[in-house]
Design goal:
45% of the residues lie in helices and 14% in strands. It is of the alpha/beta class. β1 (9-13), α1 (18-29) and β2 (33-38) form a beta-alpha-beta unit. It is an enzyme of class 1 (oxidoreductase).
């Protein structure tokens, strides 16, 4: 099984930290070149320097919720060596947490814009160049919150469910042009973003109770699958959304009440809003 990405160019969105940074490091280790994308130019520059500098890693500050910026990112990656071979779309997040009766509607819209529209913009423009180049691989980073209900996660789960569907739709449409499109649903991955969860004894214990394999995930668990899906070893795999979660998807979403009851109260968590 050959997992070499030598001589190939990839875009990694959300590349300034967490899963995106880990994926970029794995792609470079497999011989590939990476165009990092994200909103924070300083963070991207630091990661690019850490991973090897100008020859193997470049960066393009990008807000993927603006289609023109997503298009510019793809153009820059393609122009680097004349062809784009694949994308790992890791950019995403949420501004909403708490009972649905108390969610800020503007924050809901921004989260949907990032996770749904941003995904579509990156895919739309990357797919054009992948088709022109004769094929390639697009990997979208989703979440088990898309398939297992996570109470009080707000727009995050629904918008990641939309990402899953976009991956499957694109796989069906782009297969005849040899463009493969797959998704990955991470479970709880140890990054700075999930620090508050890991620091909560009640919530972290519940995650452990929900996960058959007795540890939390590492960024490398996601990065390893990304490299496989980008490589020729996965050339007959498309339209899949693969859980990398230690088996968490077999059970249920986490119980976050240990953290959130302090903020919203027991009545608030069941939807009570004072007039």
């Amino acid at each position: 099984m050959q997992l070499s990405l030598a001589g190939r160019t990839y875009v990694v969105t959300g590349g300034g930290s967490g899963i995106g940074k880990g994926v970029a490091a794995a792609v470079v280790a497999a011989g590939g070149r990476v165009m990092l994308a994200g909103r924070n130019a300083d963070r991207l520059a630091a990661v690019a320097e850490e991973l090897g500098g100008h020859d193997s890693v470049r960066y393009e500050p990008t807000d993927i919720t603006h289609e023109d910026e997503a298009a510019r990112l793809v153009d820059a990656a393609t122009a680097w060596h004349g062809r784009l071979h694949g994308v790992v779309h890791s950019a995403g997040g949420s501004e909403t947490i708490g009972p649905i009766t108390q969610i800020d509607s503007d924050a809901w819209r921004r989260t949907v814009d990032l996770n749904v529209n941003g995904t579509m913009y990156v895919l739309k423009h990357a797919a054009r160049d992948l088709v022109r180049g004769g094929g390639g691989s697009f990997v979208g980073i989703s979440s088990i919150a898309s398939s297992n209900v996570h109470r009080w996660f707000g727009a995050y789960g629904p918008s990641k469910a939309a990402l899953d569907h976009i991956m499957m739709l694109a796989a069906d449409e782009l297969g005849p042009s040899w463009v493969r499109v797959n998704g990955i649903r991470p479970g709880l991955i140890q990054t700075d973003l999930v620090g508050p969860i890991l620091e909560s004894p009640e919530v972290s214990a519940d995650y452990r109770a929900c996960t058959p394999l007795p540890r939390f995930g590492e960024v490398t668990d996601i990065a390893n699958l990304c490299v496989f899906l980008l490589s020729d070893a996965a050339e007959w795999i498309t339209g899949q959304v693969i859980n990398v979660d230690g088996g968490h998807g077999l059970r249920r979403g986490p119980d976050m009440s240990g953290m959130l009851e302090q903020l919203f109260g027991a009545d608030g968590l069941r939807g009570v809003v004072a007039k």
